[in-house]
Amino acid sequence: MEQIHSGPMAGRTVLVTGGTSGIGRATAIGLATMGAHLAITGRDRGRTEGAAREIRAAGGGGVDVFVADLSSQSELRRLADEVLQSLSRIDVLVNNVGGYWNTRHVTVDGLERTFAVNHLAPFLLTNLLLDRLRHSAPARVVTVSSNAQAMGRIDFDDLQGERSYSGARAYNQSKLANVLFTYELARRLPATSVTANVLHPGVVRTSFGAEDPGRAQRLFIPFVRPFMKAPARGAATSIQVAAAPDLERLTGRYFANSKPKRSSKRSYDEATAARLWQVSADLVGLNTPNRLTTSDQGR
Question: Staple partner for 193: which of 46, 77, 137, 289, CB 3.0–4.6 Å?
Fold first, then answer.
């Protein structure tokens, strides 16, 4: 006999990128317990399947698994194709994947990894899945940023850190880019039922930055780890923004501690946001007629 799922998210499909560990897995588990059908992405099939089993056990429903390295644009496009083939609807897209690299790494596309993973990946994936989100309306795009956005600055003269690289500066820039992207997306979807919001999850106890930690991280994190949020608490804001009924029509907002907050002054610069969108579209090859362009505004 087929199990009938109940809960406030019953009948809704949620895609969470980076759902194998930390905040992403906790977000997926939380939404599964609310009755949502989950789909998660991860780089390693074994770890992703393991996380899916855990999410199924918590929520009792099905979990779709997609394996892709989101630093690669070809993998992102393959991922989007597989998602569109597998999921007839996407009610919520949670752009959760992110990383910190202390030294400069270059992706297969020749781009600086922090900018590619933290900003260009959600930018491209959201655009590729936008039609499915529109057809599933009311739908939501939820992007995980960080309070580091307050220290960020978009350096259009050296976006890739080729002339001068700092792990912290690259990370801060990418997190500000998340907020600018979200606000610009909200402006470009004014007449649709797809909302776009962005959030700071808090300082959470995860393996974040472990691949290539900076000296400050190596020395500082062991001392403050006991005072950091557990992933389940860190996921609370993501879950709230993804699922709260009273947020169904709220768009273009920044959340922290599950409440709307003001983001940095730079994040509200519409000229910077529009320029970043154009530069990003060029970098990922999205300048095609069926994608969201400036001409879509106000429709």
Answer: 137
Considering 100, 165, 171, 183, which one is annotated as catalytic?
171
Q: Which of 18, 91, 31, 21 is nearest to 58 (CA)?
A: 31
Angle at 196 between CA 192 and CA 197, to 5 degrees: 150
165 belongs to the catalytic site? no
Each of the 299 residues of the chain gets a pLDDT tens digit; together they read 334 456 899 999 999 999 998 899 999 999 999 999 999 999 999 999 999 999 999 987 889 999 999 999 999 999 999 999 999 999 999 999 999 999 999 999 999 999 999 999 999 999 999 999 999 999 999 999 999 999 999 999 999 999 999 999 999 999 999 999 999 999 999 878 999 999 999 765 444 444 555 554 444 444 433 433 455 677 899 999 999 999 999 999 999 999 999 999 999 999 999 999 999 999 999 975 445 544 344 43
